[in-house]
Amino acid sequence: MDAAQNQTGEDPDANLTCESLIDMEHYLHYSLVPSVIIILVLACLEKRLRRWSIDGKLNRLYGRGGVVIPFDFVGMFSNRWSFGFAFGATADKLVFLIDQDFPQPPMPSWVRVFWIMLITIEVGLSSYPFFACLSTRYQKTGATLGFLYTLSWLIVMLIDLVQCPHGDFYFFLPYAAVVMYWPLLLCQFFLLGRFLHILVKSLNAYGGKAVQQEETTFLELHQIQHVQRLMKKPPLQLPQKSWIRQRLYEWDPYFKFPSRMISTAVVVLICLYMFIMAEIILYRFVSLAVTAYGADLLELVARFNESQELSWMISGAREFFMVAQGVWLTSIVLSTLTYIIYVLHILACYRKHMKRLRVGKKLFLLTDLSKVSHSLSVVAVARYSSWQIAYTVWGYFLMHLVQWVAGMIFMYVVVLPMVHGQWTELFNKWGTVILTFVLVKLIKKLQLVMAGLFFLQPKISPEDKQKPLALDNRKAFQNFTYFLFFYTVVMGLFSCLMRLIRSIAVGTWLIGRIDRTVMPKGYEACDMGFKTWVGMLLMDHYHTNPCLLYFCHILVTKNRERELQRPKHSTELMGTDHKASIRARTRWLLLYTLLYNPSLRALRKPKPWPQAVAFPLNYSV
């Protein structure tokens, strides 16, 4: 390992003995205390829609103690990038769960399932304040607590990176931990700025009361504009589109991606980056080790053994590792670009599929939508983001591996014989194969040309794109089909092999895309990833459809207007404080009824408890 040390310029022992002042794994456990405190504070501020019996005993509760919502996975369109960076700040914890880099004491395999579930709950609790402080209606409190909690994580991470900038990746990449975790620092700095902005904004808005008293609505501005556009008469002539809008992406001002999709894209890109960097670090370690040990082995052979055969084997091994390094780096670049495009393309597919669902087209998803139950659609909303991360990471790894194998085969079959000047052997070996392939393609093309020229009737109209599907020259067609039958038996073997190769290539290419199925038509239900995508689309369609939401908005508005116009009766409690308990309100209604209905006093059930006060029967109002 001396050669590896000299090439990197780092002392391996320095990184092996690096001990940070704060252990990130231990701090994850310690962070549960402030996290639970923040959740309880925010829960005490939230109001409940339903009163409990305990409200009558604890007058200070006043209907407080509601459920805190960290993130709306269905219909949230605000703070999209803030929640995206909040999810990005938890990317290291997601990689921590994927790698299962947590202590696992000796236990049976079935117990390990519950142990992993417990670890995931712990990770979720430690990240809960990031989201709860962003989504709470009490912005002053939420921004203050969120700023302090994010600042604590940022300080701990900076201390860990300053003291151990190389992390656990010793002696093969300087500052590996900094290179690995800088996106998390960027996300946390963004959250600090966002919390500070919310705090200043809430303080300027009349002490935060104006922000807290805003009436929340389930109808967004872009949804209103979408419905208004549908009501307008379409223009006679569509505007000219630019090349970017025609070929790459057409921006729609009346469509807005939900916060879940933006957050998923951000965290997928960060997790993909961390996985790629870990792969590059591992590649650097292996390449340095092979280079060092290969040089030592070659020097040892040259000193003690002069066998040409052994020297040729060692030189061949060195050439193999050099070619493998070049192909590995090339496949890393190609796979990375492919999956970055995939993440952006999934957003475009989401918009395209949602627009199709809004106009009533559903059969493009599944041939039988009944296979996607409603319960699966509910679970799909929770599954999609996490499954998209796993599918992307695994898809990248498989694509990278297949591209590396294909690249190595191409190098040894085509490129290296050219480099070594073996042109004659190359043409003798592959010339016949290439010529056979070309002849087969030409014969297949000739079959199509003959079928179009001799066995189809002429076009009905000169404007038709192709001839009608009506046979002509039937006797010649029957003889042509008879002799072609024996030839296509032989060609069917080649076609079957090509079908297998194409299926492997397409399956590997699409394994990371959850928006497309890798199963044939009729078997889409066997692809759980695609069913999750379909269930998520149906859930979003039914809960974020602009026309449906606009209709519900009209109903709610009309109902409120009707209630305001309804005359108030004297028996209603006007001006009743909402802080009054249900028990006190019920007693007041009882007293009011007995005062104005004296005949009911004698029919009352006697009260056995001593604190009951006898109501005078001769009392009248």
The 3D shape can be described as flat
Order of helices and strands: HHHHHHHHHHHHHHHHHHHHH
**Class inferred from helices and paired strands:** mainly alpha
Number of separate helices:
21
Cα Rg: 35 Å
Question: What kind of sheet is the major sheet?
Answer: none
Output mean pLDDT.
Answer: 80
Number of strands: 0
What portion of residues is helical?
Answer: 55-70%
What does this structure look like?
- The protein is mainly α.
- It is built from 21 helices and no strands.
- The termini are far apart.
- The N terminus is likely disordered.
Q: What's the short story on this structure?
A:
The chain has 621 residues and is mainly alpha-helical. It has 21 helices and no strands.
Write the topology of this structure.
Blueprint: H1 2-8, H2 12-16, H3 24-30, H4 32-45, H5 54-57, H6 80-89, H7 91-99, H8 109-135, H9 139-163, H10 176-204, H11 209-212, H12 221-231, H13 243-247, H14 259-304, H15 308-358, H16 374-419, H17 423-454, H18 474-510, H19 528-544, H20 546-565, H21 582-596
Features:
single chain; 621 residues; mainly alpha; 0% strand; flat; disordered N terminus
